[in-house]
Structure formats: structure tokens, C-alpha cells
Specification:
CATH architecture: Sandwich
CATH class: Mainly Beta
Strand content: over 45%
Shape: elongated
Mean pLDDT: 94
Radius of gyration: 14 Å
Structural class: mainly beta
CATH topology: Immunoglobulin-like
Strand order of the largest sheet: 1-3-6-5
Amino acid sequence: MSITPGSSVAKDPDASKVYTFDWTLWLIGAALIYSSAWEITGPDSALTKDTETIMAGTKKTSVRLIGGTKGKTYTLRNRIVTNETPTQTDDKSIRVVIRQE
């Protein structure tokens, strides 16, 4: 699922889904993503992540989210560093709302 930073997404607590951030609008010219890190903050540790990737040749990153507590909202943040000289660092977040779907 491709998502826009700053938005909200609904996730079923039983689903394991891959979410993709598209950084194209924020990266200028030939700049690409050199490194990417994901962080989850929220009311508990029930929402977890794995399979963090930078999609080769693109300006996109992805992560798989697992679990979550029904009725709770988490913040998912992606921090990137570019391949430019000098490098640039930026981060964007979304809200993940856990609900039975």
C-alpha cells in the first residue's frame, strides 16, 4: 500500500501489510535515498515492524507492519538520508489507526 506522509491509514490488528512511502515530491533532481530507518511510537508495543527496505532505483521506502491493539493509534515515522553531497536528512510520519476490518 502506497501512502502519503502526513496521512492516516487504517490497519486490521490481524493483518501483516507492507506500507510504502513515496519521497518523490520531497527529493529534488537526481537525489536518491541512501539510508532509511523506521520508528513506531504509540500507547503500547503491540504494533511491530520488519522488512524495512529502500526500493532500488526509486525514491520510495517500505516497511511491513504487524499487529497493533484494536482502537489504538500509533505514529509511524520514516527518517531518510540522501545520497547527495552534502547529504540531507528528513523524516515524515503517518498515523496508523488499528481497527477490525
